[in-house]
Amino acid sequence: MTLQLYYWPGLPGRGEFVRLALEQAGAPYVDLVRDTPKGMAALMEIMEDEGATPPFAPPFLKDGKHIIGQTAAILLHLGDTLNLTPRDPFKRIWVHQMQLTIVDAVAEVHNVHHPIAVSAYYEDQKPEARRAAKAFRDERIPKFLGWFERILGNDERGGKWLAGRSVSYADLSLFHLVEGLRYAFPKAMKRHQPELPRVMALADAVRDLPNIAAYLKSPRRLAFNEDGIFRHYPELDG
Amino acid sequence: MTLQLYYWPGLPGRGEFVRLALEQAGAPYVDLVRDTPKGMAALMEIMEDEGATPPFAPPFLKDGKHIIGQTAAILLHLGDTLNLTPRDPFKRIWVHQMQLTIVDAVAEVHNVHHPIAVSAYYEDQKPEARRAAKAFRDERIPKFLGWFERILGNDERGGKWLAGRSVSYADLSLFHLVEGLRYAFPKAMKRHQPELPRVMALADAVRDLPNIAAYLKSPRRLAFNEDGIFRHYPELDG
């Protein structure tokens, strides 16, 4: 059955973590708002009218009659149905734990340019964003990516991916986190990268997966921009 | 087997969402840092030395030889093993989706008193916190709790709890979110409560569960305080 992804158009955003999983698995899906003329109306209708299990916010996925919201919950579901997570229950929850840490990092990235209020313009919180950015660049990037570097440095996991032999949705998401951080904070990432050789190698390995490589060259891959989560404001880098 | 919960002492924090699940299920557990003299050393040792699956931050749970971090991942695991989530896969992921939305709300609550940097003192970001608090009180509290009110208003779920007939970890967490918001923002919550009768009734129903009622009266239940996530700074309420 064709899966339906619902997400805001024009930005990679949180929807991109879901797209990467769908693309790697070669799953049949429609990116509804981008691919169909009435997609936006359909998204709004579900947000307003969906009965018992309304999504809190996009992205959400429609799988048959079921609606699933929250990026990490969507990936938990797709991990099982598209073979992007181990079957062993503890390894499966380990992959989810890594994903939730990526979700936390993504929320902090957004907080850098919107420290005061998500509803206010960046222009109205620029001095605060500058202070938030410095702390994020100097403390949080090395903390988050350093944790993944440490995981990748442990050979007990039994393979080149985060959870061992097979690529998981957490690998795909870590790739996108790295790409996003490089876009938003090129100078800071250049400073941190020498301490993160394994994370960088993993990002390269994801980029080279045949399905991902094909996707990245396709028009389906949206460029990062300043409407999204990862925004390049030169005044926030350094 | 006795479960081991690892969390910072002296504050309810994110550990409390895990405690509530353990208490409701009557699970044998040790709150390691609080209950054992060398608990803090054990926590630090796992943070620094745990090999293949290190936790990013407390809380984390030790179940046999397995370590699980991230509040929502711990609850996903306990939901299955302690019968605090439905068995149907889509209902199970729906409960998780609600939990992840509570996790988002909790992160935003923390951001209110630390909008610039988690590593800086509240005293060094007070004017920013004041602005962040206003947006959180006026926009985010009604958005988050209003979503749960809408869910509870739909009778299709087939029972008094968020996911129907049986209490789930999301119900317990929603109770704690409401308690925390009432502690931190008593004036704002007084304004919003009339629009949230079902959420308030659910919080009352959780409070009255025999195991939870006994727990809340016990010394195991920590009071909210200004080291935690939910902090009552009068200047941030209104």
Short description:
2 copies of one chain form a homodimer. Chain A has 238 residues and is α+β, with helices and mostly antiparallel strands.
Q: Quick one: how many beta strands of chain A? A: 4
CATH topology of the largest domain in chain A: Glutathione S-transferase Yfyf (Class Pi), Chain A, domain 2
* Beta-strand residue percentage of chain A: 5-15%
What is the annotated CATH architecture of the largest domain in chain A? Up-down Bundle
Number of H- or I-type helical stretches of chain A: 10
What are the segments of chain A in which pLDDT stays under 50 over at least 5 consecutive residues? none
Overall geometry of chain A comes to: globular
- The percent of residues in helical segments of chain A reads 55-70%
Mean pLDDT of chain A: 96
| Largest sheet data of chain A | 4 strands, mixed
Largest interface summary: A-B, 45 and 45 residues
If strands are numbered along the chain, what order do they take across the biggest sheet of chain A? Answer: 2-1-3-4
Please report the distance between the alpha carbons of the first and last residues of chain A.
47 Å
Q: How does the helix and strand content of chain A classify structurally?
A: alpha+beta
What string, H for helix and E for strand, traces the elements of chain A in order? EHEHHEEHHHHHHH
What is the quaternary state of this protein?
homodimer
What's the number of domains of chain A? 2
Radius of gyration of chain A: 18 Å
CATH class of the largest domain in chain A: Mainly Alpha
